[in-house]
Amino acid sequence: MSILVVAEHNNQQLSPATLSALSAATQIGEVIDILVVGCDCQIVAEQAAVIPAVNKVIVADNAAYAHFIAENTAPLITTVADGYSHILATATTTAKNTMPRVAALLDVQAISDISAVVSEDTFKRPIYAGNLIATVQSSDAVKVITVRGTAFDAVASEGGSAPIEAVEQVHDLGISSFVDEQLAQSDRPELTAASIVISGGRGMASGDNFDLLYKIADKLGAAVGASRAAVDADFVPNDMQVGQTGKIVAPDLYIAVGISGAIQHLAGMKDSKVIVAINKDEEAPIFSVADYGLAADLFTALPELESKLS
Amino acid sequence: MKALVAIKRVVDYNVKVRANSDNSDVELANVKMSMNPFCEIAVEEAVRLKEKGVVSEIVTVSIGTQQSQEQLRTSLALGADRSILVQADQPLEPLAVAKCLKAVCDDEKPDLILMGKQAIDGDNNQTGQMLASLLGCAQGTFASDVAVEDGKVAVTREIDGGLQTLSLSLPAVVTTDLRLNEPRYASLPNIMKSKSKPLATVNAAELGIDISPRTKQLGVEPPAQRQAGIMVSDVTQLVDKLKNEAKVIS
Fold first, then answer.
1. Which residue in A53, A78, B39, B112 has the most C-beta neighbors within 10 A?
2. CB distance from B134 to chain A under 8 Å?
3. Residue A302: is its pLDDT beyond 90?
4. Interface subset of A 181-200, CB within 8 angstroms of B
5. Pick from A201, A7, A188: which is nearest to A88 by CA?
6. Distance CA A223, CA A194 (A)
7. Do B216 and A112 touch (CB under 8 A)?
8. Does A128 contact B120 at a Cβ distance shorter than 8 Å?
9. Per-residue confidence (pLDDT) for residue A305, from 0 to 100
10. Cβ contacts (< 8 Å) between A270 and chain B: which residues?
11. What is the complex's ipTM, to 2 decimals?
12. What is this structure's pTM?
């Protein structure tokens, strides 16, 4: 049994999310190779090669893969994956876009967003926005799996020295082309990697009021998130959304401000180690999952919190 | 051009689901069912494209039990022209659904296929990508903007770091994210009109494709419950607890 993990990266830096998929892979089997698909991504292959859990790094470096267009990367992954029993990737938007396409090419039923490995063919995964956990057994010869990053502790990222092997195959279907991208620029840590996250909900009342959160985030070195209600109300962009339809986070400290605690949101943050809720409604469901609750008006509590953190 | 919209009948998003008595599956008896919210967004987008004159015909398709006709009728009331039910009495996995949809697409030859990015029951987020793969066509997943021009569709996608825009050759599969649009409600006259719009039924077993299950659900269980903590009286006490008890800030 050998496992292929598809790396998450931006052609410069291997994403820490990859370490979660590797962690799940170590629970399935021992021989774990990693595939780096991208363009001018040699440096990423070198970062992958020093991960102790990695047996071999396979690099596919071509302009056709620059923007991780699934139409091009899926056939490549499928070809490279020949002979492997499992293909894993952490459930980022790139993997969610790509892995089902891989599974269909292989004629197998993919298993999305696993939160636990029961055995080599049986996995647990959240369904119904995390209201239930299903145990699923696959009978397919090859298991195509995406991994919930927060459910697996990252493997060590340094100390190994795996060989790097290049594949020259190029798949360019020519049916999709990259136009542009607008990536959020922020000096704050990335939401899914931050050890502290502070999120605002509908109670923030406007996008401008998120400044109250940014000031606290900068003092704590925290990332700033938002509930779906805040995104739907156009306070902040969707890439800040924490929840079942947004990002899944599990930081050491999660501070929910003006968030009522819809199940949709809880599904994205309830695995955080310590949860703080600040909400003026004492009956808000968020308090039922919070370690520390403060029933207070956020417009007075936040400036006070900021000053006390100095 | 012709748009095909795939829709799914799911447990209504307001229902708090629970496991059945033997923990083998979700309790579905006497539970309110609705169109998957992401599918509503897909229908709405197709209707808007038709109102702009870009799309000339909207065909909605559902793969499911006979009761899925209700959701297809809703789509007709919202502005679809006709519907196809691919009847399957057992729940199908995303791969099997994608295969059924491919069979319908081979027949209907749509230029644009719209569907939700995921269904809120299984949360798989697979069917659109699988359909595009089976059709060998382009895919624009998690769309927050769709613009058709010059035989191509520009899709702006919600990705982890922000937004990405791709230009896709047609036919293409586009899966909808939350912010693409705000779906309308069906008006009473349109609901009445929908009853006379065509709704064809084919049996999934008669499509001649392999829709056998590849996975087995061994059981469902509620997630680990978090214990509620304590209420603090003010910000000073909160900061003290975080520093000295939880030790998560310094």
1. B39
2. yes
3. yes
4. 181-184, 192, 196
5. A7
6. 6
7. no
8. yes
9. 96
10. 223, 226
11. 0.94
12. 0.93
